[in-house]
Amino acid sequence: MNIKIIAVGKLKEKYLIQALQEYTKRLGAYAKVDIIEVPDEKAPENLSAAQMEQIKEKEGERILAKIKEQEYVWALAIEGKNLSSEAFASQIEQLAIQGKSQLVFVIGGSLGLSPAVMQRSNAQISFGKMTFPHQLMRVMLAEQIYRCYRIIHHQPYHK
Question: So what's the architecture of 2-41+51-151 in CATH?
Fold first, then answer.
């Protein structure tokens, strides 16, 4: 399995970088994992709705440039589907059975994802109604993907 995590912005905090590296290392036993960072748009504090849309569009173009036609794309979005870890693992396993070996997970910037990215996605997933920092979401996503593979392979995980 090939997994790509495309995220807007650069991860700067050392502790988050270390955590992400740890989970991508663990995932290496199950899949080839690539973390791709696309530049975020600098924005002033007070943005109009039109400016917000322009920023999401520019970031969206950068994201879409990193996605290949044959890849199965999950967009992380608050309005996405809430899944248990077991249900998420089941969906990943089903995609593998169907021959879909290239998965992409997209994490937007602080304003979210553009309509074009949402339209390109095959599925949308949510980690709940709460808002999380998009930098932290990379670690949370990597941990959940790792947990999925432990579930798929009937291997124990910590209690």
Answer: 3-Layer(aba) Sandwich (3.40)
